[in-house]
Amino acid sequence: MVFVVPVQARYAASYRECLDVVAREQRYLAQIEALPLEKIEGFLKDSVATDAAQFFAVDGDRVVGWADVFPAWAHAVSHCGTLGMGVAPAYRGQGLGKRLLQACIEKAWQKGLTRITLEARADNTAAIALYEKFGFQHEALMRNAMRFGGQYFSAVQMSLLREQGPLRA
Ligand SMILES: CC(C)(COP(=O)(O)OP(=O)(O)OC[C@H]1O[C@@H](n2cnc3c(N)ncnc32)[C@H](O)[C@@H]1OP(=O)(O)O)[C@@H](O)C(=O)NCCC(=O)NCCS
């Protein structure tokens, strides 16, 4: 049984492992490996302290997915948050992405955010379909926005506004 739980510092190593596996696919995330554990530990400590919109999917003690929305710091854009997420390959297609995203969006709205943005590689059809399902709208095509192994890929920028109403998953 997989549970979706709010961020907890004790998941740092397992979260790092999950992030690393997805990053090393070199297809979906901008980073191609996870940051060192000390950095991740510090990051999660801050998240816990700020009650961040950050959730993990956990199977036993193992993190198998994550989603987070972090707000921009500057005053005029502090209502905006950026979404990041991923699910371990063996756990995809089982509804975890939907559960993680739902929890994260609800929390982001609770915390007062009114706009969530994201960027996804334009050929990441699974992620884009998931975001569209939740009402995210396409805003821009960012040409050559990502580069893997010397090859350029365009990315889509999408956003969800709180005023759009209830979740539509
Ligand atoms: C995108 C991702 C998080 C989706 O997680 P998931 O747990 O597989 O998604 P779910 O099982 O909850 O599926 C949710 C919806 O996504 C879409 N989807 C999922 N897999 C899909 C696929 N292979 N092809 C097309 N659509 C797909 C469907 O709309 C699905 O809804 P449905 O089941 O009602 O049809 C996951 O594929 C992933 O981790 N990918 C690699 C990392 C990544 O792309 N992160 C986002 C970067 S922007």
Short characterization:
The protein is an alpha+beta fold.
Question: In one word, what is the shape?
Answer: globular
Please bin the fraction of helical residues: 25-40%
SSE topology string: EHHEEEHEHEE
- Which structural class best describes the helix and strand composition? alpha+beta
Quaternary status of these chains? single chain
**Could you give me the name of the CATH homologous superfamily?**
Gcn5-related N-acetyltransferase (GNAT)
Main attributes of the structure:
Aminopeptidase; binds coenzyme A; seven-stranded mixed sheet; alpha+beta; 169 residues; single chain
Question: Your description of this structure?
Answer:
There is one protein chain. With 169 residues, the chain is an alpha+beta fold. It has a single domain, classed as Gcn5-related N-acetyltransferase (GNAT) (Aminopeptidase, 3-Layer(aba) Sandwich). It has 4 helices and 7 strands. The protein has a 7-stranded mixed beta sheet. α1 crosses α2. The mean pLDDT is 96. The protein binds coenzyme A (COA). The site of coenzyme A has 21 residues, from β4, α3, β5 and α4.
Secondary structure blueprint with pairings:
Elements: E1 2-6, H1 12-23, H2 37-50, E2 53-59, E3 62-71, E4 80-87, H3 96-110, E5 115-121, H4 125-133, E6 137-148, E7 151-161
Parallel strand pairs: 4-5
Antiparallel strand pairs: 1-2, 2-3, 3-4, 5-7, 6-7
Helix pairs in contact: 1-2
Bound molecules: coenzyme A.
Residues 22, 28, 85-87, 92-98, 118, 120, 124-127, 129-130, 133 line the site of coenzyme A.
